[in-house]
Amino acid sequence: MTDTSSAPSRTGRAGKGLKIERIFTTPGVHPYDEVTWERRDVVQTNWKSGETIFEQRGVEFPDFWSLNASTIVTTKYFRGALGTPAREQSLKQLIDRVVLTYVKAGKEHGYFATEQDAEIFEHELTWALLHQVFSFNSPVWFNVGTKSPQQVSACFILSVDDSMDSILNWYKEEGFIFKGGSGAGLNLSRIRSSKELLSSGGTASGPVSFMRGADASAGTIKSGGATRRAAKMVVLDVDHPDIEEFIETKAREEDKIRALRDAGFDMDLGGKDITSVQYQNANNSVRVSDEFMRAVEEGKEFGLRARGTGEVIETVDARELFNKLNQAAWECADPGVQYDDTINAWHTNPETGRITASNPCSEYMSLDNSSCNLASLNLLKFLREDDTFDAATFQKVVELVITAMDISICFADFPTEAIGKTTVDYRQLGIGYANLGALLMATGHGYESEGGRSLAASITSLLTGAAYKRSAELAGIVGPYAGYARNAEAHKRVMRKHQAANDQVRTLDSMDGDIHRYATKAWAQVIELGEKNGYRNAQASVLAPTGTIGFMMDCDTTGIEPDFSLVKFKKLVGGGSMQIVNNTIPRALKKLGYLEEQIEAIVEYIAEHGHVVDAPGLKQEHYEVFDCAMGKRAITPMGHVRMMAACQPFLSGAISKTVNLPESATIEDIAEVHLEGWKLGLKALAVYRDNCKVGQPLSDAKAEKKDAAQDAPVEKVVEYRPIRKRMPKRRNSQTTSFAVGGAEGYLTASSYDDGELGEIFLKFGKQGSTLAGMMDAFSIAISVALQYGVPLDTYVEKFTNMRFEPAGMTDDPDVRMAQSIMDYVFRRLALDHLDFETRSFMGIHSADERARQLETGSYAEPTNESDEDLEGELESFSQSAAPAAKKSQPEPAAEDQSGSGAADARKVSPEIHSSAELMERFQGKAADAPICMTCGTKMRPAGSCYVCEGCGSTSGCS
């Protein structure tokens, strides 16, 4: 590690220090004294093996932090040996370790005007972290304030030249970066191709051959000393003579994986045999130019150039090469695409050098041998109770956080001297946000809608505008970055490009209009202050995956992503688990104008089905608000691309995001995504077609089932016929009068002596002979089927939610809304004749049960002490989502004020351990995601990586 903390300022102190404004805190009151603390036991097990993988008891957290957040922070970020006094055991210790280090460095380097400003900075930073308003990236929590090197950056870009010394040095540098818990990327295009000669007269090996050694190194070194695999990116220019070999590298390995899997080897991600396959530890990307993309459009030839001389040594058909790229991405999701000319058109330091590569998740793009530390804001924390966005507070928090991030460069250590020098000289930062998808849903905006994109664009513009405003202010106090002078005109040009893009945003409602006004003012100040002071930072913003830190902030969604699913898996303090309908759904329904009874019915339907299609009373034009990454109404590929395009002009870097396509997607569909990404001005793009990779769960189970079916002996076929059980001559009957949407009727239900339903008859008031005859025929058909043994719950499942007129309000307190008379009749029959567990699974409850749920958190009557404990836990969960607000604090998107936020909480099967597995139950098919190598839980997407809900492990960058 290279220590830069003692390096003198290149520019010297230019001002008198920052005046820090209070945002959340109260003078004379420490943030820790405003919350209620509790002790918890954190015990993690691998659910497959039953092995305890982590145990620390009596850890201290605020009572409003979820079990998941406290578990992930305890296991990932608490430092010190377990079982010793040195081990951290309170969130206070963790936050103090980090915040006090930042405050100390800020004082030493002249960032604060007075001691009082330093204290306010300390309290505001502490309050924001304590209340999950934002989080630094994982390396800060791993390293800051410890005896380890103070590595604060999650993202690194390396460089490699066409020499053996440089290639071997690349291996070494990557190893140190992985050891520190970070990821790295680089461009291999300087290395001669296998079609060029060495100075000795032999033929060069080419960059793909050297990728093997780096891949093996990445697979061996555990990132951060933990079980997370290393994260790395390998980029090759589209005009490199070995580009076809590079494009097809991972697709060929995927063929090998399939062959080995079919031969019985364990080829799942983390499987014992997957290590025999090469190139699996890196994301690959092709760096395409505008020249190449125009050649693709026009069907022209494209030249591949020698690395040393730049002369064309081979000509290829551009469309054919582009199709090979799309074919490989279709087969195995690699390589991704980076748009070189777009990236460098927004480059603030072109006089220093071009941007040639990115970090592993493609959001950080800057100079070679540089690094970037990240932080992300939780957008839902700025949504007030009246569903307005607190843009003023958002801007203040951005300025606070960007100040802390810049201070961290003053004391940070770096893995190499070259990276340390570039980072100190250019001070690249990456502020971003999480929970965009949840914010859009809570405010009634569809992810694929114009309004959703306008809101996202306005927020992103304000984010970067506020960051650069503070950067210019800091430049007036502690000086601009060292490389600013030679790049001043280019930097100011990029600032004007951001401002011009902000002027192009067309707002559609009062929410995005208000945010956009703040952004417009911020960009005007950026230009004015920048002309006067310059800028402290070469880069300011990116949109990162926010995997582990998203869980730390109890976010529903990561980065720029939409919500993963409408129904979530939730662990309970003290053991147990439940499924919960996304807390933002009731809030969104209330925002859209639905009444409490309608909201309750819709939430119950979602809890049962996992989607909103045909939900009772929900208007079809509102379906788009609830579209998710997975499920029956999954967001379209171009919906993802257009959202990225809306936000990209307001980011210094790029966006970590994968565009998901269904398994049925064609190569042409992927080509369209890549072309549109270029036309819409994206900097990078990765695609993933469902089930395109073998390394996923259940592959062995499927193979075993297939083998078992083939080996099964032929058995004698025995035909079974149902026997009709006729009703007795005298039977018990119950007649119910009802009204649905103003139409009146009567339902007569007759039972056997044991109470089992065996016959129904329906009569309607004011009906004609035709309708009466049809109802008689329908009643007889249902009755005969019941007597032949067709289960009532089958009919309930088929006929509830059937929609036709008359429909609407009923006079039955147990069934307040009905989609049709059939919907009402079979809900009534379910309530009268089905057991609680069966109908509860279908989301059908009586008025008394719904009232009980609002009071206790459970529909069922408590039968013993453990059930009462669970109900108390559910109640505490519903109360813990939002801490008590004070003054002008931004309100979290709490569990809903409509009273239905917990109506969806119910126990789940012990076989379900994550939201991804919950979605498998709703969809009836396996989710295409890897299994966590730490705890065995099904992971879910986060940007271009995967993250585990159980323990916070990620498959790539943090």
Summed up, what is this model?
With 958 residues, the protein is α/β, with parallel strands linked by helices. Helix content is 41%, strand content 15%.
Structure overview:
41% of the residues lie in helices and 15% in strands. The protein is of the alpha/beta class. It has 4 domains: 324 residues, no CATH class; 216 residues, Alpha-Beta Barrel (Anaerobic Ribonucleotide-triphosphate Reductase Large Chain), CATH 3.20.70; 134 residues, no CATH class; 103 residues, no CATH class. The strands form 8 sheets. Strands 4, 5, 6, 7, 8, 11, 12, 14, 17 and 18 form a 10-stranded mixed β-sheet that branches. Strands 15-16-24 form a 3-stranded antiparallel β-sheet. It has a 3-stranded antiparallel β-sheet with strand order 19-20-21. The protein starts with a strand and ends in an 11-residue tail after the last strand.
Overall pLDDT: 85
The radius of gyration over CA amounts to 30 Å
The chain-level structural class is alpha/beta
Quick one: how many beta strands?
A: 26
Largest sheet: 10 strands, mixed
Percent helix among the residues? 40-55%
Shape: globular
Percent strand equals 5-15%
* Overall tally of domains: 4
Question: Would you identify the regions where 5 or more consecutive residues have pLDDT less than 50?
Answer: 5-13, 223-228, 696-712, 873-903
Note the total helix count.
29
Distance between the termini: 20 Å
Question: Which descriptors apply to this entry?
Answer:
3-stranded antiparallel sheet, 29 helices, 10-stranded mixed sheet, Anaerobic Ribonucleotide-triphosphate Reductase Large Chain, 15% strand, 958 residues, single chain, RNR_lg_C, EC 1.17.4.1, alpha/beta, cobalt
